[in-house]
Amino acid sequence: MGISSDNVHGLVLALSSSIFIGSSFIVKKKGLKKAGVNGVRAGSGGHSYLLEPMWWIGMVTMIVGEIANFAAYAYAPAILVTPLGALSIIVSAVLAHFILEEKLHIFGVLGCVLCVVGSTSIVLHAPQEKAMQSVKEVWHLATEPGFIVYACVVVIVVCVLIFLLVPKYGQKNMMVYIGICSLMGSITVMSVKALGIALKLTFSGSNQFIYFQTWFFTIVVVVSCLLQLNYLNKALDTFNTAVISPVYYVMFTTFTIIASIIMFKDWDTQNASQIVTELCGFVTILSGTFLLHKTKDMGDKATEHTIFTNELASIEPAPVFTRQGSSSTEPTIFTSQGSSTEPPIYANQRSSSDPASYTHSANDSR
Hints:
Blueprint: H1 5-38, H2 53-75, H3 78-81, H4 87-100, H5 106-125, H6 135-142, H7 145-169, H8 174-203, H9 212-238, H10 241-264, H11 272-295, H12 298-314, E1 320-324, E2 332-337, E3 345-349, E4 357-361
Antiparallel strand pairs: 1-2, 2-3, 3-4
């Protein structure tokens, strides 16, 4: 990559985007928690968070980050901008650890690393997109049979998730909410790319808003963003932020790359080595996602175990009674062990004529 002024601008914007977006997850969740105290939680279908200023601060922060990310694509190539999106995962996880006190197990950290490495590998080996001279060229690609089939499959799967799986498994499995956001996100990115091309060409002097295709892509962006926002709020309010952020990033990146390959036919210009490298990146992502799922609660369990162990250590041991004496005629004396305060000693005085009797010895002389 050449160090040009445009690339520097794109790099700064991409880094700023990651910081803003990663921080927005934390701020929005704090707002969701505060709203849940006074109203119905977002995870239960409530919208009281709309009245919470903290949530709106997080929302504005995310919008600023998305605008910076959008602007970064106008200055720098996607091969530079897209991998930097992984930094938002690190920002979110670190802030969640210190602010929300959501612990992440060491294997969860390894899962995050694998997810980032796999995603970065895919993006770095993805081909550059062809330069578009008109929004009509993007419309032509979007209306080819391959992408139409993909878009229809996405819409069907999202409808199944919303109407069938969300009521049953939305509160139990975060993949339901994240699946909706990620699938719609792939359509959103394709529409954002088209809208970005239209804006860039318009600013260059070729007005693209005279075409209905530009307005169609704009409507798709607005509708899909609102849908993603709704279910992302539910996911953040219900599950661990440190786990949601990397999984959402992985799935979003995966579906976006698939949509881009179908729409822009990126693999037509790649060799076998590049394609195999991308497939290895997918395997790495799946491995990281598996680790995240298996260890997402271990951080909290480790903390609970430490607290429980400390509580046990503070409890004074109960007295342990041992038997002394070897014959049936010898008195049986029970002594207390394990306590700092000696309890009374009971002596069993047995005789052939008297029944067993227990006498209390208050001191050693008796």
